[in-house]
Design goal:
Helices cover about 25% and strands about 20% of the residues. It is built from 16 helices and 30 strands. The strands form ten sheets. Strands 12, 13, 14, 15, 18, 22, 23 and 26 form an eight-stranded mixed β-sheet that branches. Helix 10 packs parallel to helix 14 and helix 11 runs parallel beside helix 12. The N terminus is likely disordered.
């Protein structure tokens, strides 16, 4: 059945006649699909109920974003390090007047919506109108249902069977909410054993924590069995004392009910960093995030203790504590909106808005150890994650570095090891099927970090191997094309080392990740009043973020800019000696051994683990 025939056959006569007249210009902009995982179709929506229908307008110049970034991030560019101001970014990517007028004109003249019902948000990014379900269905040629959350029973509106817009309108609209995207990570991410009780966020610490019976025995333990701050300093040549003071900033993001305890920090610092006892991170509360609330301490303990311990008391750590008061919103959106007011969204169910709109400071480095969506080419996910990734690209254009963990599922998604079966269903338990990447790590504007471990019986003088206690996440994106800056390194791997998998198993032309790696197991931390061994790529990300924060410290002291978007530089010849090349290990999943580590870049450990002094010197050599 053609798109137009499907539309015409189920609509009232007046709109049917309108669509027949527009037959040549109707285009499907959101394809039908199954009900998203984690949700159940409850009932047809009440046609008289009101919903705030939101049109997210296409931004200007997004096709030039990578070129703009290379202009300031490619070491060969004469403008290297000349980051844009937030005002310049805002003005360059604001939706055009043509876009606003086209969508507004269609709504008022083509669809008969009274102009008083339509509101353009202050930044010019979103057109919103409050309409009944019946009006929304006629406007979008969609059928709205009420869906029930399988975990907590909450409900929301949506139309998983897709919607349509006229062709001349669809090119000016990124997506319409609420429609096929169900918001929040809950629908697609899974719990790890020590996740917060809310179950809304997947943590990357897939390796189980182990209690340490006698902490004093660590004095004689090797770094292959117990990784301390001293082990990390030796592994990565990390001899660092801050010299740029409060000018340098670094942050870590924690989400939902994942919170730290100051008593755990002091327990850890008293043993491994006495000059940090009594210190806590500086709170940046997003949407009312409260680190003193009850919740899971596993992830924040890992992140904060490692970063503060490595950076020392001379470098302040900021904590983005991101609450999720509106369960239908992806917490990524809340963090991005807090940093950039142009990204503020309105909740598609309750009509309540995000309250922190561009009112939070952006640190020079931001570390994220969470996953929120599988990297699937899926109409319920792709438009939104692509918009999120573009927003991250705009932020790094201003000189910010965003670092994220690559995941603990190998070539599968999350700790539940989900793969795409031949029937096209995302299924847990490592079934045979296509590899599934992880977001936000696969966004090309993020620096993704995989996990390594000291080999059994090995020492810090030797290059690590990819961890075997859990499969480090890595692979190729289904949403983002491979960027030019990693072409040579990735093609070398594809030509010489990739296993002979069928073309359907992974997307060879996609953005490849991780970019780098750092130790992920077994790290010694304090958690819930005791010492434990913990890890995951969620440890690797804050470790590498600490290294980049230290690089920024050196550049700022030298009167230079922060490093900002580092990926083009890391893959360039100027940084060829700045990494310890990891060549042993694999990241199994989906009924395969995954990808093997190999000389040069690989989808297990990226370019390798950092040598801080060489990395710092390479960045100091740039303008």
């Amino acid at each position: 059945m053609s798109v137009l025939h499907r539309l015409v056959s189920c609509l009232p006569m007046a709109l049917t006649q309108l669509l027949v007249a527009l037959a040549a210009v109707v285009a499907a902009v959101a394809a039908p699909g199954p009900v998203p995982a984690g949700w159940s179709l409850h009932r047809r929506a009440d046609p008289t109920a009101f919903i705030p229908l939101k049109f997210s307008l296409a931004q200007s110049n997004l096709d030039k974003l990578e070129a703009f970034l290379l202009d300031v991030a490619d070491p060969r560019s004469p403008k290297y390090g000349q980051h844009w101001s937030p005002a310049q970014v805002k003005e360059t990517f604001r939706p055009s007047k043509e876009t606003v007028d086209t969508v507004h004109g269609w709504l008022t003249h083509g669809a008969g919506i009274h102009a008083d019902k339509i509101r353009l948000n202050p930044t010019g990014e979103i057109l919103q109108l409050n309409v009944t379900i019946a009006e929304a269905e006629r406007l979008l040629n969609a059928e709205y249902y009420v869906y029930s959350d399988n975990e907590d029973g909450s409900v929301r509106y949506g139309c998983h069977d897709g919607y349509t817009l006229p062709d001349h309108v669809s090119k000016h609209v990124d997506f319409v909410w609420p429609t096929v995207h169900f918001g929040g990570p809950h629908a697609v991410s899974r719990r790890s054993e020590d996740i917060s009780p809310s179950g809304r966020f997947g943590r990357e610490g897939g390796a189980s924590t182990l209690p340490i019976e006698n902490i004093e025995n660590l004095a004689t333990a090797g770094c292959d069995t117990s990784v301390t701050l001293d082990c990390l300093r030796e592994l990565y040549n990390f001899d660092f004392t801050p010299v740029s003071g409060d000018v340098n900033t670094v942050g870590v993001a924690e989400f939902g009910a994942n919170v730290y305890r100051a008593s755990d920090l002091d327990l850890f610092f008293n043993m491994f960093r006495p000059d940090q006892v009594g210190h806590i991170p500086t709170l940046i509360s997003v949407e009312g995030g409260n680190p003193n609330a009850s919740g899971s301490v596993g992830e924040p303990s890992l992140d904060i203790e490692l970063m503060m311990g490595l950076l020392g008391p001379g470098q302040n750590l900021s904590l983005y504590q991101v609450a999720q008061p509106l369960q239908t919103l992806d917490p990524t959106d809340e963090l991005l909106a807090a940093l950039d007011g142009s990204y503020c969204l309105v909740d598609p169910v309750s009509s309540e808005g995000i309250t922190d709109c561009g009112d939070k400071p952006a640190t020079n480095v931001i570390s994220i150890s969470y996953h929120f969506n599988p990297d699937l080419n899926d109409p319920t996910i792709s438009p939104v994650v692509q918009r999120q990734c573009s927003e991250i690209g705009k932020l790094v254009l201003t000189g910010i570095t965003v670092i994220a963990s690559s995941g603990d599922g190998g070539v599968a998604y999350s700790q539940s090891h989900e793969c795409l079966t031949p029937s096209g269903v995302l299924t847990a338990g490592n079934p045979n099927g296509s590899f599934v990447g992880q977001l936000p790590a696969s966004c090309p504007f993020i620096t993704a970090v995989g996990a390594t471990s000291v080999a059994p019986g090995g020492s810090t003088d030797q290059v690590e191997m990819s961890t075997t206690d859990f499969p480090s996440g890595g692979g190729f994106s289904n949403n983002f094309a491979r960027p030019s800056w990693q072409d040579a390194a990735v093609q070398n791997y594809l030509d010489n080392f990739v296993p002979n998998y069928a073309a359907s198993v992974f997307n060879r032309s996609g953005r490849a990740y991780p970019d780098v790696a750092a130790n992920g197991w077994p790290l010694v931390i304090a958690q819930n009043g005791v010492f434990v061994k913990s890890g995951g790529t969620s440890a690797s990300a804050p470790i590498f973020a600490s290294v980049i924060a230290a690089v920024n410290d050196a550049r700022i002291a030298a009167g230079k800019s922060t490093v900002g978007f580092i990926n083009p530089a890391l893959y360039s010849d100027a940084f060829s000696g700045a990494f310890n090349d990891v060549v042993n290990g694999t990241n199994p999943g989906c009924g395969t051994e995954g990808f093997p580590a190999a000389p040069g870049w690989d989808p297990v450990s990226g370019l390798g683990t950092p040598n801080f002094e060489k990395l710092r010197d390479a960045f100091l050599a740039l303008p």
